[in-house]
From TrEMBL:
The keyword Transcription applies. InterPro entries: HTH-type_LysR_regulators, LysR_HTH_N, LysR_subst-bd, WH-like_DNA-bd_sf, WH_DNA-bd_sf. GO terms for molecular function: DNA binding; DNA-binding transcription factor activity. This is HTH-type transcriptional regulator TtuA. GO terms for cellular component: cytosol. Residues 1-58 form the HTH lysR-type domain.
Length: 308
């Protein structure tokens, strides 16, 4: 027996009429009428009486309704059990791309969380890739966390916002602790460590400096956030980092000050849709949960200066 016909029949009874159930199930009314009539032919018995007031169940229809509900409930539960089995037995490699700061500080927690529930999943991390979204699009990565400037996203893969974050200046200057934010000219007057090119945030910073008629005093270039923080902690320069990086690169005696007039970037999870295989979906959910707990709850509280 066609389960679709049973669903139409149960929907018809619960909605109380052909027109109403056709709207709910997004099925043309004549097609729905044919399906119910076909079900009656299959069973060799009339199930309902149709009238202007709606439909009335006949005894055979009442019996079928009770059995059909139980059958459909079992089928739905079976589908859920299969999905749960797939998730519990998820296995294989999942290739993820992470910004350097997040890889430095969160990769261990990501692997530990995934392994706790899914020991047969192996995570392969590629950190600091400037073209991570393209690598997802081309199939070289399964997932990536990327920083995206405001505006339309010009990729065919799926983007899901994890966090909207502002850039902060990190400095060892104790006087900076008194400031809630710093202007761009004040920032450009300080020696700075930057991420090597290509890097969207650095390019944006250099364009702003040129627009202000300033030249950046670049003390050093460092690809990892931990290396940048080491230079800052020695008092050699300041660093400009997104909130997600600044909050996790914790070290005493360093102040964190918001930078005025810097655009807010979106930290986004990139994947191909739909998520396949199941292991990729498992890792994606771990990343979502981790960002909800680790960053999003804090984002609203990080308005201005703070010590990290």
């Amino acid at each position: 027996m066609d389960l679709r016909k049973l669903r139409y029949f149960v929907g018809l009874v619960e909605a109380g009429g052909f027109r109403r159930v056709a709207d709910v199930l997004k099925v043309a009314q004549p097609a729905l009428t044919r399906q119910i009539r076909s079900l009656e032919i299959d069973l060799g018995v009339q199930l309902v009486i149709r009238s202007k007031a709606g439909v009335t169940l006949l005894p055979a229809g009442q019996t079928l309704l009770e059995e059909a509900r139980e059958i459909l409930a079992r089928v739905d539960r079976l589908g859920e059990l299969v999905i749960q089995l797939q998730v519990s037995e998820a296995a294989g490699e999942v290739r993820i791309g992470l910004p350097s700061a997040l890889a430095d500080t969160l990769l261990g927690r990501i692997v530990q969380t995934v392994k706790a529930g899914h020991p047969n999943i192996q995570i392969i991390c590629r950190e600091g890739a400037a073209d991570a979204a393209i690598q997802v699009e081309e199939g070289d990565l399964d997932l990536a966390v990327v920083s995206v400037a405001p505006g339309p996203v010009r990729y065919t893969c799926h983007f899901e916002r994890l966090l909207k974050e502002q850039d902060y200046m990190l400095s060892r200057d104790t006087g900076a602790l008194q400031a809630k934010e710093i202007s761009l000219p004040e920032l450009f007057a300080k020696p700075v460590v930057l991420t090597p090119l290509p890097n969207a945030r650095r390019l944006h910073l250099e364009k702003l400096a040129a627009a202000c008629g300033a030249k950046l005093d670049i003390v050093a270039e460092a690809a990892t956030m931990s290396a940048q923080l080491e230079l800052v902690s020695r008092g050699l320069c300041v660093a400009v980092l997104p909130l997600s990086a600044a909050r996790v690169m914790q070290r005493g005696g360093i102040s964190m000050i918001a930078v005025k007039d810097l655009i807010s970037y979106r930290l986004m999870l990139v994947n191909r849709s739909p998520l396949r295989p199941v292991a990729t979906g498992v890792v994606a959910e771990v990343l979502r949960s981790m960002f909800r707990v680790q960053y999003q709850d804090r984002a609203g509280a990080d308005n201005g200066a703070g010590s990290i």
